[in-house]
Amino acid sequence: MKIVFIIDQVYLHGGIERVLSIKANYLAMNENNDVHIITTEQKDKESCYFFEDTIAFYDLNVNYNRRKSYFHPVNLKKVPGHIKRLKSKIKKINPEVVVVCSHSTDTYFIPFINKKIPKVKEFHYSKSIELVHRENPRNLQKKYFLKFADFVERKYDKLVVLNKDEVGYYKSNNTTVIPNPLTFYPKTISALSNKVVIAAGRIAHVKGYDLLIDIWSIFFQKNKDWQLHIYGEGEPDYVQMLKNKIKGYGLQEVVVLKGSTDKIQEKMLASSIFAMSSHNECFPLVLLEAQACGLPIVSFDCPNGPRNIINEENGILIPIYNNVVFADQLQILIDDDERLKEMGKKARENAAKYKLDEVMNLWEKMFTEIKTK
């Protein structure tokens, strides 16, 4: 099968990019598949993840201004050229299916390019963030944009969402649930003996790292010898705000912004708990990775991803924004070594459900279904 994946870039560390590399490599290992990846702004940079040599890459060199909305005039004027180049490339490749991975401008015009080719749109964020605009549409521009988005989504053959809770947010009946695949399943697990709590992901406001630092300032009062390691890179202004907050609390020696890493498995295996403080998630791959390493998880019960991965046996869900309870539960967990290790064992067992073969079987089944429809 000839498959095209469309994404903005693959040179920055991120969940979407990592998942694409895993899926594309899996498909490319089958000699019956011909895998292509089209980017809009790769900028001649190397991929930050490994891709099989047989995968063909093409960059359209559109280069949107990432500091501005895709609907800002400086970016909108690039759209006609983007459409023209993408249409030409798809015609030349002549794929049997097209998959749009990232939520960029491609999302809104792909369904109308060569309508005979089946098209799939992946959603890696929670649509819960749209509820306030849908229920109280005071902003007419936003109201009509969401109606337009609903119209476009109906034109896809399939919308892939990451958990069952997300299905209800969509106005169309073309959704299917396929979770992210586990990227690794190490032979060994963490000994849970190091006094380190780890967090990882894109450094952005939505991830709530500022809240996690607030939580640590509470936890630190009784636990001077524990450290919080945060891995990732992202928005410079937000990173600086985190640094200022760490300094303001006097936590420079125990809360460390580690930057990005391509050895997250190694870092997790050297930690004892994974913490997540996001405002919203959809199906955070990083939680599965933490579980595969045998880490118990303490996370805000944000919409909607964590609750689809964590249960009372393998982690702790905290009422969202309740920093005191979060700090208290961390304390209770580190004080109970038996419970900590039992949770780690159950976490490992849960992660096994998302091994690559099982998830990719769902993708291949869907491709066959839409191709023969």
TrEMBL record:
State one Pfam family annotation. Glycos_transf_1
Q: Which CDD domains match?
A: GT4_AmsD-like (cd03820)
UniProt cross-references to Gene3D superfamilies, sorted A to Z: Glycogen Phosphorylase B (3.40.50.2000)
- Report the protein name in the record: Glycosyl transferase family 1 domain-containing protein
Task: Fetch the SUPFAM superfamilies from UniProt.
Answer: UDP-Glycosyltransferase/glycogen phosphorylase
List, for all copies, the residue spans of the domain called Glycosyl transferase family: 193-349
Q: Where is the signal peptide?
A: none
InterPro entries linked: Glyco_trans_1
Alphabetized GO MF terms: glycosyltransferase activity
